[in-house]
Amino acid sequence: MSSIAVIGGGKIGEALIAGLLDGGVNPKDIHVTNRSVERGQYLREKFSVVPFVDNGPAVDGVDVVFICVKPKMVLKVAEEIAEIIDNNDATTVVSMAAGITNAALEEVLAAGAPVIRAMPNTPMLVGKGMTALAPGRFVDEEQLAKVTTLLQATGAVRVVEESDMDAVTAMSGSSPAYFFLMIEAMIDAGVNLGLSRDAAKDLSVNALYGAAAMLKETGEEPQQLRANVSSPGGATIAAIRAFEEAGLRAAVYDATQACARRSAELG
Ligand SMILES: NC(=O)c1ccc[n+]([C@@H]2O[C@H](COP(=O)([O-])OP(=O)(O)OC[C@H]3O[C@@H](n4cnc5c(N)ncnc54)[C@H](OP(=O)(O)O)[C@@H]3O)[C@@H](O)[C@H]2O)c1
Fold first, then answer.
1. Site residues for ligand 1, CB cut-off 6 Å
2. Which pLDDT tens digit goes with each residue over 66-94?
3. Residue 214 has pLDDT above 80, yes or no
4. Which of 36, 108, 134, 191 is the most exposed place for a label (fewest CB within 10 A)?
5. Quick one: what percent of the chain has pLDDT higher than 70?
6. Domains of the chain
7. Which of 182, 178, 180, 129 is nearest to 152 (CA)?
8. 255 alpha carbon – ligand 1 mean position (Å)
C-alpha cells in the first residue's frame, strides 16, 4: 500500500484525496498540508487523513508526493521538500500545476529525482476526471504505473509527451468550462423556447451526460452518432445547419488555440 503526501488540500487536493480513498488507500497513509490549520482540520474531519502545516515532515518517508498548490507556489514548495525527498530516493513527485515543467522541478529537487507532470481537471471532484501524465527523465515504469493506478481512482488517466501539455490543457484541463458554457447557453435557449429554467437544465444536462456516455460506451465516432440522429429534412439537421452557419467548428479551433497559447505563456 502506498503512502502519500498531498501538498495543498484545496479544490484539486480535496478531489484527489476523495478519489484515493475511493481507490482503497487508507486515510492514515494520506498526509495533507495547508498553511491554514482550519483547512487541515476540515480535511481531517471529512476524510480522517493526517493534516500538516509544514511540508517537510508531511513528505518524510512517503512513496508519492502530489503537489497541488497554485503554479506560482510549486517551485517554492519543491525547494522546501528537496532535502527530505533526497533522503528517500523511492519518492515520486507529481506536480498537478499548470505550466510548471518537469525540467524546472528536476532542477530544484535532488539530482535524479523522479518527477511527473500531471494535468487534471475538475470532474475529478465527482470521480470522472481526466488526468494526463508526462513522466520526467528519471521516472521508471514501476513509478509511473503506481501513480497511474492511484489517479485512476479519480477518473481516466493518459500518458502523454510533455510537449503536448499545452494542447492537453485545451482539450481536457480547461474544457469542462466549455461544456458548462454550452449548457448555460442551452438553458437560456430552452427558456427562450418557453420551458422553465429547471426543465431546460434537466433536459440539456441529461442529454450531454447521455451523449458523453454513448461516445465512451459504444466507441463509435461522433460523426456516426450524429448522422444516426439526423434524419433527412428533419429537425436535428436543421439545428446542425444553424450551428455550422454560426461557425461552431471555427470557434472550437480558435478557442482551443487561444487556450493552448495562454497555457504556454503562463508556463
Ligand atoms: N482547479 C482546476 O480546474 C485545475 C485544473 C487543472 C490543474 N489545476 C492545478 O491544480 C493546482 C491547485 O489548484 P486548485 O484549484 O486546487 O487551487 P486551490 O483551491 O487554491 O488550492 C491550493 C491549496 O494549496 C494550499 N497551499 C498554498 N500554499 C501552500 C504551501 N506553501 N504549502 C502547503 N499548502 C499550500 C492552500 O491552502 P492554504 O492557503 O491554507 O495553505 C490551498 O488549499 C494548481 O496548480 C492548478 O494549476 C487546477
1. 7-13, 33-36, 39, 55, 68-71, 73, 77, 96-98, 119-122, 173
2. 999 999 999 999 999 998 887 676 799 99
3. yes
4. 36
5. 99
6. 4-165 (3.40.50.720), 173-266 (1.10.3730.10)
7. 129
8. 25
